[in-house]
Each structure stands twice: as C-alpha cells, then as structure tokens.
Amino acid sequence: MQDDSFIPNENIAPVRHRRRASTRTRLLVTAAVAVAGLGLGGVAVAAAGTDDDGTPPAAAEFDAQARAEAASRADRSARDSATPTPASPSPSVSASPTAKPTASAKPKATTKPKPKKTTKPKPTWVNPMKGATITSCYGPRWGVLHAGIDFAMPAGTPVRAAFGGTVEKAGDVGDGYGISVVVNHGNGYLTHYAHLSTAKVGVGDKVAAGETIGLEGSTGDSTGPHLHFEVHQGQLWNQIDPAPFLRARGIDVAC
Length: 255
Ligand SMILES: [Zn+2]
Prior knowledge:
The model is unreliable at 1-62 and 70-107 (pLDDT under 50). This protein has helices spanning 2-38, 42-49, 57-82, 84-87, 89-95, 100-110, 242-247, and strands spanning 133-136, 139-141, 144-146, 149-152, 158-160, 165-172, 179-184, 189-199, 206-207, 212-216, 227-233, 239-240. The chain contains 7 helices and 12 strands. The protein has 2 domains: 2-82, no CATH class; 133-247, Glucose Permease (Domain IIA). The chain binds zinc ion (ZN). Zinc ion binds at residues 136, 146, 148, 150, 228.
C-alpha cells in the first residue's frame, strides 16, 4: 500500500519538471525576441528566466512584497484603529483619580489606632483576717501535715473571702473542720475557712473579695478560737502552702 501511494507522486514530479522546462524554453524565446528588438538587457532577462517559471522574478518578488506590505499595513491599521477604541475610555478612567485621592485620604486619617486602655481595676486578694496573730504555719505539726495557716483573733471576728468566687461548701460536715466554708475562685484555686462559729454564706453563693463569709470560732477539732485558712490548687483538698501564695498576691503573712 505504501508503494502504491508513493508511485503516483513519482509520476507527477517528472511531469511538473517537463512542464517547467517548456515554460522556460518559451521564456527564452520571448527573451531572445526582446533582445533582438531592444538590443540591451537581453542577457539579464535570459539569465533571470532560469530562476522562474513564467513571470520575471523581480516583478514577482516585488508583487509579493507589495502585497505583503499592503496586507501588513492593513493589518496594522486595523490593529491601530482597534487599539484607540479601548484607549479612548481610559481618559475617563484617568479622570476618576481626581476623586480617588480624596477617597484614599480618608482611610489614612482613620489609620491612627487609639489603644483604649480599659482601666478595669485588677481583682486583688485580701487578707482573710487582717491584723491577726499567726499561731501556726503550713507544714508538719505533731506528726501530721498542718495544711493551712492559723490566724488568731478574739472570737466572733469577721472572716473575709480572700478573693471573689462561688461558695462550694458551707457548714459542718463532721470532717473535723467544724463549721467551714470553701470558696471556688474559678481560676484554679479554692480557699477554705475552718472552725467558724457561724457561716454567713450558703453553697452556690457568689462572694466578692473581702466579703464576710462567717465569724471566727472554735468548732470541730480546735483548741481555741482561730481561723484555719487553706489554699487548694487545681482541685478540692489539694492544699498548698498559703504563705508564698498570698505573698505573691501582695499579702504578707508571718510564715
Ligand atoms: Zn489550722
């Protein structure tokens, strides 16, 4: 099949060649006639005849060149006439910048951020029984850990919440602490007030720092009126030393 399609091409080629040759001879004849008539330039025409089939090469080249130039000119003019059209709306666009500066100037004026300092008073811790004598600190005592600080004052002295929070325990549950109150401060810490003569708050009550939550007494396992104060960290009954804890919050206790 490949040979079949190849053969016709070979057959056409010689034919074209022959036809070409015949035109060339015809041209040479015409050239010869021209030479006879003019006497000049015949050699040039004859020599040129070997290059082209019918039309003189110079004329053909010029013709093709002229046509191409004309086409490109037309193309250019078409392009040139096309470009101005989208270009004409641009002036109206460039006219708008006069309005733009005023618009861009506005955000610049408002870019000055005024950092509003919320002068909210920082919640402070208070001494649960200010002016009391410290009779026992946190640490081992009589073979067991004394898990709080003892504050001594005359019986009935108000006991204040060291910090704001919610009452989690209030009353005597028979655990040796007597009438005691636990306040959950909601920040990972709880405070415990024990041996009270009376509790002034109930479970679920919201209390503020310095608010009276009970009165000093000697209920539970106690040898005399005093406030047993504890700080629980993270969870109830995880007592830590209240002295450094309070000192870090501006309350100095003699421990
Ligand atoms: Zn104690």
